[in-house]
Amino acid sequence: MTMQQHPVGALAGLKVVDAARVLAGPFAGQILGDHGADVVKIESPEGDECRGFGPPFVNESSAYFNAVNRNKRSVVLDLGQANERDKLFALLETADVLIENFKLSTLQAWGIPHARWFVERYPRLIHCRITGFGDEGPYGGLPGYDAAVQAMAGLLSINGDQAGEPVRIGVPVVDLTTGMNAAMSILLALQARHRTGRGQMADVSLYDSAVSVAHPFLTNYLHSGKVPGPSGNRHANIVPYNVYRTATVPLFVAVANDRLFARLCSHLSVSGLPSDPRFATNRARVENREALEDELCRAFANVDGEQLGPVLLAAGVPAAPILDIRAVADAEHAKFRGMVVRTADYTGPGIPIKLSDTPGSIRAPAPTLGNTTIAANETLFNT
To answer: In sequence order, what are the residues at sequence separation of 6 or more whose Cβ sits closer than 8 angstroms to the Cβ of residue 301?
Structure first.
């Protein structure tokens, strides 16, 4: 899909005010914009700080910013000024969705007593409020940062080498997961509004999102009482599931059932292993992990991983070489799936959700700061 072709997206006609900063909220707004929503991004006169998260920079904004703010317009409002807040409130009169991640103390300084004020004043509004930990509770009101929440939700404790220190997950998984949850919460609330005619507030926090993806470590602990630690590339519940060194390139292999294990062993010329009672079932393989790993490491060391990887994958055995980001960016399949986009106006990741009848589209790159102006009591949305 080229940027010149603009199909009618699934969310065409949806009016979104994206007043969030940095990553989780803007990512949610971009998801909606990709699928046809009219998204107005509200920024302070200084702009969203992630415009400066570089290098690299494109058109005076970071590539980081540009990758989560396409398909939006930018309006600059100094919300510390009452007359500028009135412009925001005028937008909300006709908006369907508000996405924001303001501190509760900031809202109160503006004369907004509590977060539910927005849906009380605008009964049809879907208000998606994104916070670090929620507004109440023992951690209520604390600021949220991806790495800090990874630490507090246990994700760092289970990431890293088995004998090493905990390691931050390199991808900002908490922010991105929160953005996905925020977009999903908005769609759920919109569906409910079709039935009730009323909007509602969606309370989405980084902490909740992080705890929800601590799988399977959290549920394993709740049922076993055993505290997990870093496991490297190994899986707590599945064996074999690891990176194996070969005579050429390392392979990641993830074998989830006995049939695939037998198929793997056949290709490694160790076809007797599946009949060994120690390795006959996944439960047995987990219990005898170290013995099996010794056998497999010896077998993998004698094969050409570059040749074996595609053979295993074609045979249905999950196996793949470890690629760097350049290889991913250059991959023909990534291009075929539209996940790496390079046009005159936009270079970055593509749209992962493919709808057959109402596909998403990249209609505009991330906006320059304040590329749209708004006068007092003016709405930017078509009515």
So the answer is: 245, 246, 247
On the CB side of 332, CA atoms within 13 Å amount to 0
Percentage of the chain beyond pLDDT 70 is 97
Percentage above 90 pLDDT, the chain: 87
Reading phi first (left if > 0) and then psi (alpha if -120 to 50, else beta), residue 60 is in left
Domain count, the chain: 2
Tokens of 263: 């198929």
How many Cβ atoms from other residues are within 10 Å of residue 176's Cβ?
Answer: 17
In the predicted model, what is the mean pLDDT of residues 35-54? 95
| 283 in any annotated domain | yes
Per-residue model confidence as pLDDT tens digits over 309-337: 999 999 999 999 888 899 999 999 999 99
Query: Residue 13: CB partners within 8 Å, gap ≥ 6?
Result: 36, 38
The one catalytic residue in 175, 208, 294, 324 is: 175
What's this model's pTM, rounded to 2 decimal places? 0.91
Q: 311 is in which domain, residue-wise? A: 251-321
| Domain assignment of residue 237, yes or no | no
Predicted confidence band at 365 (pLDDT cuts at 50, 70, 90)?
very high
User: Is 382 inside a domain boundary?
Assistant: no
For tokens 């045979």, what's the residue? Answer: 315
| pLDDT the model gives residue 42 | 97
CATH code of the domain covering residue 267: 3.30.1540.10
In three-state secondary structure terms, 253 is strand
Contact 43, 73 (CB under 8 A): no
Element (H, E) at 201: strand 200-205
State mean pLDDT over 58-67. Answer: 93
Distance CA 181, CA 83 (A): 33
Among the ranges given (84-93, 260-269, 342-351, 372-381), the one the predictor scored with the smallest mean pLDDT? 372-381
What b/e string do you get for 251-268 counting C-beta neighbours within 10 Å, with b at 16 or more?
bebebeeeebbbbbbebb
Annotation says 357 is catalytic: no
Among candidates 89, 79, 124, 108, which has minimal Cα distance to 17?
89
Residue 287 has what pLDDT?
A: 96
Cα separations in angstroms, 213 against 143, 241, 308: 20, 19, 32
